[in-house]
């Protein structure tokens, strides 16, 4: 030990003495020209924006981005005393460096054979935070000491302490006492209690470990160190120490739904401007169901990662009647990647677009029972080349009804149906339901080649669930201004865009998707809960979608890679997205009655022969009830089984058709 002290200790002490007592002239231009307060002063009376879910449960807070400066007179005297006691008890006596502290630290360093104890004063800690790196070396400590001596010539102790409180790190992204008081206690510094101050005074030693949201045993032990040190120095009495140790401190809980609150923040900025975040003082009632939001985050993450760890996903769940966004998840790992794939990412929807084409066709007089042939046809594209849309897997069904064509997600018939109603008509229709599409994609629109966001697509489905009313996504229900004591309501934005009859018939067709169609894995769910939906899979299996709904909840799922690439055969909406949908919808509907979609008076139901589309006769071997928009139902009996005067079926486009697509095919399963 003596040899170690001789070799290491003597050298270290000589360096310290040389550095501290043979000080060169320090050129402190960096701080000579700086303003004393490097951030805007914290406004008096500030309080954060608090967000509650639709049942009044606390969901989190929205805090300002900017850092604020707090003057020393707004920092509790108890907090100042606690920090000085535990960090630098000789702060008011030394001139920037504490020789006794340095000597004590050097002995410990020599004993441990490394730089374990810094012996830093509050001034040195401030210097390190403001100007230097976290490097541990004798040379760095010398530089820190020289700068501390010069710093104390320029500033008073009060000013140095004020700078310290505004520059020190308190963990969880909180720099300075203003952010720390707001983050952990939702207070301004001057509002902190002595017990809260005792906790915060212990944080700078190790912000990651001792911050109030850390492990409770570690936080309590560090607080006890602070209180013991204060008692030892006679700053507080033994009785005060025991009283403060026994006081229970309540922390503000961290945000429970950060992805959703990011949307609320954006809506507030859109409505009131960016200054509203800095002003604060609001209580926001969100449309979110906090339990469902947490379940959505978990379900999406686990469901996507089960397919592949590299995949991403998004989820939007709405109340179709009001547009209330019950849950929204923009990715499987928001803590690492905050990009919002639910509201911002634009991807091809594949066959998830088809229900809108069928709804538009019903509005134009087409019927679900009409028979169409899926014999492939060729269309001339813009570069004078032929485009031949194919069904998924290249299969052909021959002559089938529009009902079955939608359930099987038949590509060829979808293209023919779009040609029959006209691309301009469909683009106008899509715009009414809130889906902006580009007409220059021509007939390939039937296969979902234009790009949309998940949020847009889910909103476009709301008229199908509500009897023709489009509900705009709503994330904020009402706002209470605590300063003005006034409420601002945000009523639902609901617009009629589709006839109730066409909406109902389309929904009845989409029920088959979940019974025998591309999402038949959901058959059991659909038997328990009347529901409808549609899968979507884009070209080369790049995107998997499922949009499904009941009368009470509509949920959309997207799964894919951020940088689009094939997911491999079998990467389809039915196989990948639909199971995630079911795992969320079960808890989403728990406790709600299983209700069916109400049939409007403008819909009639008749018994038909599905093989011909005509009214069924007693001789028809197969019969089924089919729904029609009133006035479009068949009026003649099946000619194949004893009926007369057949009705001419809807026209089928000639082969080949008009101008083809400018984008590629997007097959689906």
Automatic annotation (TrEMBL):
<feature type="region of interest" description="Disordered">
    <location>
        <begin position="635"/>
        <end position="669"/>
    </location>
</feature>
<feature type="domain" description="Glycosyl transferase family 51">
    <location>
        <begin position="64"/>
        <end position="230"/>
    </location>
</feature>
<keyword id="KW-0472">Membrane</keyword>
<dbReference type="Pfam" id="PF00905">
    <property type="entry name" value="Transpeptidase"/>
</dbReference>
<keyword id="KW-0133">Cell shape</keyword>
<dbReference type="GO" id="GO:0008955">
    <property type="term" value="F:peptidoglycan glycosyltransferase activity"/>
</dbReference>
<comment type="similarity">
    <text>In the N-terminal section; belongs to the glycosyltransferase 51 family.</text>
</comment>
<keyword id="KW-0121">Carboxypeptidase</keyword>
<dbReference type="Pfam" id="PF00912">
    <property type="entry name" value="Transgly"/>
</dbReference>
<dbReference type="InterPro" id="IPR036950">
    <property type="entry name" value="PBP_transglycosylase"/>
</dbReference>
<keyword id="KW-1133">Transmembrane helix</keyword>
<dbReference type="GO" id="GO:0008658">
    <property type="term" value="F:penicillin binding"/>
</dbReference>
<keyword id="KW-0328">Glycosyltransferase</keyword>
<keyword id="KW-0511">Multifunctional enzyme</keyword>
<dbReference type="InterPro" id="IPR023346">
    <property type="entry name" value="Lysozyme-like_dom_sf"/>
</dbReference>
<dbReference type="GO" id="GO:0071555">
    <property type="term" value="P:cell wall organization"/>
</dbReference>
<dbReference type="GO" id="GO:0006508">
    <property type="term" value="P:proteolysis"/>
</dbReference>
<keyword id="KW-0573">Peptidoglycan synthesis</keyword>
<feature type="domain" description="Penicillin-binding protein transpeptidase">
    <location>
        <begin position="313"/>
        <end position="585"/>
    </location>
</feature>
<dbReference type="GO" id="GO:0008360">
    <property type="term" value="P:regulation of cell shape"/>
</dbReference>
<dbReference type="GO" id="GO:0009252">
    <property type="term" value="P:peptidoglycan biosynthetic process"/>
</dbReference>
<dbReference type="GO" id="GO:0016020">
    <property type="term" value="C:membrane"/>
</dbReference>
<keyword id="KW-0645">Protease</keyword>
<comment type="pathway">
    <text>Cell wall biogenesis; peptidoglycan biosynthesis.</text>
</comment>
<keyword id="KW-0812">Transmembrane</keyword>
<comment type="similarity">
    <text>In the C-terminal section; belongs to the transpeptidase family.</text>
</comment>
<keyword id="KW-0961">Cell wall biogenesis/degradation</keyword>
<dbReference type="InterPro" id="IPR001460">
    <property type="entry name" value="PCN-bd_Tpept"/>
</dbReference>
<dbReference type="GO" id="GO:0009002">
    <property type="term" value="F:serine-type D-Ala-D-Ala carboxypeptidase activity"/>
</dbReference>
<protein>
    <submittedName>
        <fullName>Penicillin-binding protein</fullName>
    </submittedName>
</protein>
<dbReference type="InterPro" id="IPR012338">
    <property type="entry name" value="Beta-lactam/transpept-like"/>
</dbReference>
<keyword id="KW-0378">Hydrolase</keyword>
<keyword id="KW-0808">Transferase</keyword>
<dbReference type="InterPro" id="IPR001264">
    <property type="entry name" value="Glyco_trans_51"/>
</dbReference>
<dbReference type="GO" id="GO:0030288">
    <property type="term" value="C:outer membrane-bounded periplasmic space"/>
</dbReference>
<dbReference type="InterPro" id="IPR050396">
    <property type="entry name" value="Glycosyltr_51/Transpeptidase"/>
</dbReference>
